[in-house]
Design a protein that fits this description.
The structure is a homodimer. Chain A is mainly alpha-helical. Chain A is built from 10 helices and no strands. The first copy, chain A, is 77% helix and 0% strand. The longest helix of chain A is centred in the first third of the chain and has 25 residues. Chain A is elongated. Chain A binds a DNA duplex through helix 3.
DNA sequence: TATATACTGGACCGAGCGTTTCAGAAACTG
DNA sequence: CAGTTTCTGAAACGCTCGGTCCAGTATATA
């Protein structure tokens, strides 16, 4: 009866996501979004309602396709001891591939945390929820890695590894080498804590 | 012979700085800058050449009047052992005063690091230089605090404390409690390292 | 094949942007 | 007090912004 949609919604959202990631919410203009998605303005507004609607879809896509796959090993019921190191190393590898989105543009959500659009409370909550999710995942990873450490030490190291990951994302655009050092520091903190625990036996 | 300037440049730059801090470079419109500074558009352009020129002046003012006073104890020829803890505690106090600029708006330069304007290479360099300055200052503070620790451990902890300070600034707008935890983690890392060094005797 | 449905392209909207311009007011200097 | 210089206010610039609208077209169903 009705004509079917002539584009793949996921593909469109992914294209918009890339532009928002690179340019930020404010920096991605509607004409630029048209070009990136291949959609005309009316299709964008018909499908997503507004620029914000498209941004929200892009953020969800970012969480589902970029963030969570990387965090999956840390969110599993049983977490591998080395999973938290693998996470940090995976981030460093992404930063080292200088043409990767992570290297050129950091993290869509961390970029958003310091952008004007965050004054919209709903956006701020999404970003804060992301931080909590990251913290919980790293917390599991640290617990699996330092199974013998005192709880307060594990919490402290999980806070530190989470913060250092966030700092690395904030830095990678302007100082990629220093972003890598920041992640290396997180890794070293964990391995040093483990070495010390082993020595305590 | 010539008429003298009818306003105090420093006062004007300070007012602009506050607005840029709150709203970011892109978010601070020229009309809003007029209102904040009390200057008319022509005076702004006559004095600073462009919005970017005013922003650059605001950034310098931020470095000179906000950042460097806080870092001064860490940059002195002889650094007090506890100075790095005092720095972290001072940051936490500022974050706890929920009406302070730091609590509501984080750090002007870290906000800029993830903003579109950073694609201007000159702006990116200023932000990267700030990170280096912060890292060097914290490095001195860590060296003074952990005078007996191994050099590689001091470097690692200095990288960590620097990164965690940056993460706290990135987070404070959207998750102030977590920003405080991030700084607390930095502090605990340092004190734990010192306790452990003491125990080694 | 006829029809109904909704996707699509492109013109258009008002608003706000950063910047330029210029005439006139202000006030130091000689 | 006259002259010169510079600051200042206001208006207008061209442009881009996010968003709306509608006629035309494509297509799945009956």
């Amino acid at each position: 009866m009705a004509r079917t949609q002539g584009f793949d919604r996921d593909v469109v959202v992914r294209a918009a996501r890339t532009l928002f990631w690179r340019a930020g919410f404010e920096g991605a203009s509607v004409p630029a979004l048209e070009e990136a998605t291949g959609l005309s303005r009316s299709s964008i507004y018909n499908t997503f309602g507004s620029k914000r609607g498209l941004f929200d879809a892009a953020v969800q896509s970012y969480l589902d396709e970029v963030i969570r796959p990387r965090l999956r090993p840390l969110k599993a019921d049983v977490v591998a001891p080395e999973a938290v190191l693998t996470y940090l190393d995976g981030l460093r590898e992404a930063f080292a591939r200088t043409d990767s989105m992570s290297a050129t543009s950091g993290c869509l959500l961390i970029n958003t945390a310091t952008a004007p659009v965050v004054h919209d409370g709903e956006v701020a909550r999404v970003v804060a929820d992301y931080r909590d999710e990251l913290r919980a995942a790293i917390g599991s990873g640290v617990a699996a890695y330092l199974d013998a450490a005192a709880p307060e030490e594990r919490e402290r190291l999980a806070d530190a590894a989470t913060g250092l990951s966030i700092a690395a994302f904030a830095l990678v655009r302007i100082a990629p080498a220093e972003a890598d050092r920041t992640l290396a520091a997180a890794r070293d903190l964990l391995t040093a804590a483990r070495d010390q625990a082993a020595r305590a036996y």
